[in-house]
Amino acid sequence: MHIRKDEVDGSTEDEPESGRSPENEQEGEGDYGEPEEVLPRTPRAADLNQFVDPSFKVARSSQNAAVVVEQWVNRALDMGVRGLVDEFRSSLARWQPETMTTVAYQANTDKNRYLDVPCQDYRRVILNWPGLPNDYIHANYVANPTQDHRFICAQGPLESTQLAFWAMVIQEGCEAIIMLCNTVECGKFKCSQYWPREKGEVLTFGEGNGKITITNLDVRPLSAEDSFVRVCQLKLEFLRNGQPASQIVRHYQWENWPDRGVPPTRLTATNILSEVRGSTKPILVHCSAGIGRTGSIVAIAYVQEKMQHGVVFASSFLLKFTQIFMN
């Protein structure tokens, strides 16, 4: 994984005179300090309803799923926070694939938010949209156990990459976007305001055959319990083969998940994933860098699907998942 130190933001509001902003913050990686022991070691996972939300139980496809869930929960409780952090540090914190290349990333520095969070060439999303200077966007396909392009993991759009972002949504037929950051966090710009936030608001990007118009049709909370997840129903209007076309996209913004922190909630991640599970199109997930909070959500989805198929996890699972995430 990569530790980011610097940020490049295309927004004039967030761009210093040098064009580069040194940043010591990280998104879920780096120097973790001493972990606090917050997970209980007892009781054992005798009552799985404490740990498995109803949507997960409905979706499971193997009779062995409950056994695997119990084993996984008990392992986490036995290891505790300290043990889990130590496992991560020893196997994942500095790992990256030996064969990774980043030619497109290096050729498009103005389209990258962070200097040391590269976009690898393998499985990058290649754009084909009128009005774009080239085919590059900082985004990669990520597989799950059953679908090769189940997710697209992306950086938070810059002011200068908003058209490319929406072109990707249309090109890939995305029906759901999961946004895991705020536009500003701790006084720093983390993502552009790339979507119309309020009901009735309209934004337009591009021109001519590449023009995209986005209208906010509705805004609601995910649920009473998850009121901090804001769901917008967006209508995208554009030209396809010269003819008017449209697409409906649901935009989920999780507003209280802090960078480098843990959200004050238990089942929000699984509740969001339950909402988008029915989509057969790539699910677009992003935070600011597209690696920390984004990777966490995709990892949860991957673990859920493995459990639903009754697959037992070995201690090497995290490394295996990281290889899949990176490749």
From TrEMBL:
Biased composition (Acidic residues): 24-37
Residue span(s) of domain Tyrosine-protein phosphatase: 84-327
GO MF, one annotated term: protein tyrosine phosphatase activity
Region (Disordered): 1-38
All residue ranges annotated as the Tyrosine specific protein phosphatases domain in the record: 277-308
Pfam families: Y_phosphatase
Protein name: Protein-tyrosine phosphatase domain containing protein
